[in-house]
Amino acid sequence: MRFVMLCDASQPTRVAPICGKTGLGVEIQSFSNPEYPLVQTDGVELHRSNYASVFPRSLHGPFGDLSPGSCDRLIREVTRERFEFAYAHAQKLQAEHVVLHHGYVPNTNTYGGWLKRSIEFWEAFLSSKDVGVTFYLENLLEEDWRLIRDVLDAVKHPRLKACLDLGHAFCHGKPQVLRWVEELGERIGYVHFHDNLGDQDAHLSLGQGRLPLDQICYALEGMAPDAIWALEVGPENLEDSLFWLETHGYLPLGEG
Question: What is the pLDDT of residue 255?
Fold first, then answer.
């Protein structure tokens, strides 16, 4: 792995002390809700002050109802607007990594049409972005890796990579999660770690579900050695999940 980050579940005051204690970075998630700045008008400053000494930083962008490959032009335009919102706030918060959902819902668009429109979307979007920011496409409802792989391979941009969400792949995907790792390989630049029982997206602490995490971690270290690992288990489960990484040899003892 490149390094470990802690997802804050939109709770910076709870997670910032854990980041400070462990020396780990943070994934800021408040701005996944595009209404957040309207409700919390000092939201940017709140995150700046809480995470003043926390680096590196990533930001999770909006995802609800968004689709960069939609057959509806207006939906693509709204998606572009929301992704620009994420980028703008990443700049304000000095976040070098931005997680955005790939956005494909199975059986709602033809494969080829969605792929073509998504490629055009990402080529246009990335053309005006700072070279210091990398974007990651996260799987949610996708049943396999193929469309994400094909988008990445067609766009061929060094700052567009895959975010493999292990829990989503386990409960929504048809192939085994290890196949996702094998097939995406070094396209994986970011990994969301959480566990579940395979029936729903429960975001359990590591080791509390049925994911073959040891096998997955071993495969990631071999096939995506530079990927960022982000714990997305909720603030209440971070310490237990860090302990799991420590005791299984994936985090130096004393960092959790």
Answer: 52
pLDDT tens digits for 230-239?
A: 999 999 999 9
Look at residue 254 and tell me if it is in a domain: no
Is pLDDT of 221 > 80? Answer: yes
Range of the domain at 224: 4-247
Tell whether 37 is covered by a domain: yes
How many Cβ atoms from other residues are within 10 Å of residue 165's Cβ?
28
Look at residues 40, 12, 3, 2 and name the one whose alpha carbon lies nearest to residue 235: 12
71, part of any domain: yes
Our CA dihedral for 187, 192, 197, 203, rounded to 10 degrees, sits at: -160
pTM of the model: 0.97
What angle is formed at CA 179 by the lines to CA 150 and CA 166, rounded to 5 degrees? 90
Encode 178-197: b = buried (16+ Cβ within 10 Å), e = exposed: bebbebbbebbbbbbbbbbe
